[in-house]
């Protein structure tokens, strides 16, 4: 990522901008772990 951004953008800026995306992915993973029915809904419809 550092190779494609302007020189004024630091590695710290890149890492700080990634935090919201990682947080959203962690929230989604936890949600699917707590409620596996969300993942299994369509396979249950197809395979009974």
Number of distinct helices: 2
| Poorly predicted regions | none
The total strand number stands at 0
H/E element order: HH
Mean pLDDT: 93
Q: How many separate domains? A: 1
What is the share of helical residues?
over 70%
**Which secondary-structure class do the elements indicate?**
mainly alpha
Task: Describe the 3D structure.
The chain is mostly helical and 48 residues long. The protein has one domain (11-47). It has helices spanning 11-34, 37-47. It is elongated. The relative contact order is 0.08. The model has no long low-confidence stretch (mean pLDDT 93).
The gist of it:
The protein has one domain (11-47).
Q: Which secondary structure elements does this structure contain, and how are they paired or packed?
A:
Elements lengths: L10 H24 L2 H11 L1
């Amino acid at each position: 990522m550092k190779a494609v951004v302007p020189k004024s953008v630091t590695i710290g800026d890149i890492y700080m901008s990634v935090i919201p995306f990682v947080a959203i992915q962690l929230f989604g993973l936890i949600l699917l772990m707590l409620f596996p029915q969300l993942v299994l809904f369509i396979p249950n419809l197809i395979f009974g």
